[in-house]
C-alpha cells in the first residue's frame, strides 16, 4: 500500500510560499502522490490553476485531483485544461470525478443543480475522453488540444462514498477515490468488494482502490482539537452543532505509532493507496507524516 499526501488547500490564510514548500517537500518523498480537490464557494485555490503550479513545482510525484465536478465546467474546456496539466506534468496526472456535495458550488458558477447526477457526470466524462482521443466535436480545422501526454488522457477515478455510485462508474473509471470518516476498515472493504465485483463483471482490469481521511499528529488532546477546528472551517455549510457531534469520531488523531497501526489495517484489506488529508498547514505535520509514510514506501 502507498501513502499519498493532500495539500493543505482547505486551510485558511494560505500563501504561495507555504504551498510551494509543501509541494516540493511532498515531491522529495516518500509520498506516493500529491493530492488536492475542488471547491468553489470557499477560500481554497482554484483547482485547475493550481494544477499548473504543482506541475511546475514538482518532478517526481504523481498528481491526484481527488475531486473535480465536471458539471461545474464546460466539458471541452475542462478536457483541454486537464490535457494541458497532463502534458506539463509529463503524464503524472490522475483525476477523480464526482458530483459534489454542495448546491452552493453549482449556484456560484451558474450551473444547474439538477445536473448533479452520475448520468450527467458520465456524459461529460465521455466528452472529455473524446477530446483526449483527438476526435473533432465540431467542424473545426483541428481537434481540441493539446494532446495529453498519455494516450487516452489522464486516468479517471470516481469520487464516491457509496455502492450505487461505484457501480454507475464502471464504464468510464479506472478506480475509486473514497473517503472514510470513521476509519472503519471493514466498511471500506465492503465498498472495495463492490468495485472489485463490478469491474470483474464488466471484464475490466482490477480497479485502483484508494481512500482518504483527515489526520492530526501529536500527543494529548491537541491533535483532536486541531481536527475539530479544521472540520468547523471546512464544513461551513453544516450547522456547527452537527459538526460538534461528529468531530470526536471523524478523521484520525494521535501519535505516529498509532497512525501506522491504522494504516496497516487499511493495507490488510487490499487498499492500493491511502491519501492523508492534513488539518493544518504546519510543515511539522507534513514531516511527521513523512516519517510514517516511509515505512510503506
TrEMBL record:
GO terms for biological process: alkanesulfonate catabolic process. It holds the Pfam family Bac_luciferase. One of its GO terms (molecular function) is alkanesulfonate monooxygenase activity. SUPFAM superfamilies: Bacterial luciferase-like. Keywords: Flavoprotein, FMN, Monooxygenase, Oxidoreductase. Residues 22-259 form the Luciferase-like domain. This is Luciferase-like domain-containing protein. It comes from Gordonia namibiensis NBRC 108229. The lineage of its organism: Bacteria, Bacillati, Actinomycetota, Actinomycetes, Mycobacteriales.
Amino acid at each position: 500500500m502507498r501513502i499519498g499526501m493532500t495539500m493543505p488547500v482547505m486551510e485558511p490564510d494560505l500563501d504561495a510560499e507555504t504551498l510551494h514548500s509543501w509541494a516540493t517537500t511532498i515531491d522529495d518523498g516518500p509520498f506516493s502522490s500529491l493530492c488536492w480537490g475542488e471547491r468553489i464557494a470557499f477560500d481554497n485555490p482554484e483547482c485547475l490553476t493550481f494544477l499548473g503550479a504543482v506541475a511546475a513545482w514538482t518532478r517526481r510525484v504523481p498528481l491526484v485531483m481527488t475531486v473535480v465536478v465536471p458539471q461545474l465546467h464546460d466539458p471541452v474546456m475542462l478536457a483541454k485544461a486537464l490535457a494541458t496539466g497532463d502534458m506539463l506534468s509529463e503524464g503524472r496526472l490522475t483525476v477523480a470525478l464526482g458530483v459534489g456535495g454542495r448546491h452552493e458550488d453549482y449556484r456560484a458558477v451558474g450551473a444547474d443543480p439538477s445536473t448533479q447526477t452520475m448520468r450527467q457526470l458520465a456524459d461529460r466524462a465521455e466528452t472529455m475522453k473524446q477530446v483526449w482521443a483527438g476526435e473533432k466535436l465540431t467542424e473545426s480545422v483541428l481537434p481540441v488540444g493539446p494532446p495529453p501526454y498519455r494516450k487516452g488522457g489522464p486516468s479517471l477515478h470516481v469520487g464516491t462514498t457509496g455502492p450505487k455510485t461505484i457501480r454507475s462508474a464502471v464504464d468510464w473509471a479506472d478506480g475509486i477515490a473514497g473517503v472514510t470518516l470513521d476509519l472503519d476498515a471493514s466498511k471500506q472493504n465492503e465498498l472495495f468488494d463492490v468495485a472489485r465485483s463490478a469491474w470483474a463483471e464488466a471484464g475490466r482490469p482490477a480497479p485502483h482502490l484508494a481512500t482518504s481521511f483527515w489526520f492530526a499528529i501529536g500527543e494529548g488532546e491537541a491533535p483532536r482539537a486541531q481536527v475539530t477546528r479544521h472540520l468547523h472551517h471546512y464544513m461551513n455549510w453544516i450547522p456547527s452543532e452537527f459538526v460538534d457531534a461528529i468531530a470526536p469520531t471523524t478523521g484520525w488523531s494521535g501519535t505516529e505509532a498509532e497512525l501506522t497501526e491504522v494504516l496497516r489495517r487499511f493495507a490488510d484489506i487490499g487498499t492500493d493507496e491511502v491519501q492523508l488529508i492534513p488539518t493544518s498547514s504546519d510543515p511539522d505535520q507534513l514531516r511527521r507524516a513523512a516519517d510514517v509514510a516511509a515505512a510503506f514506501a
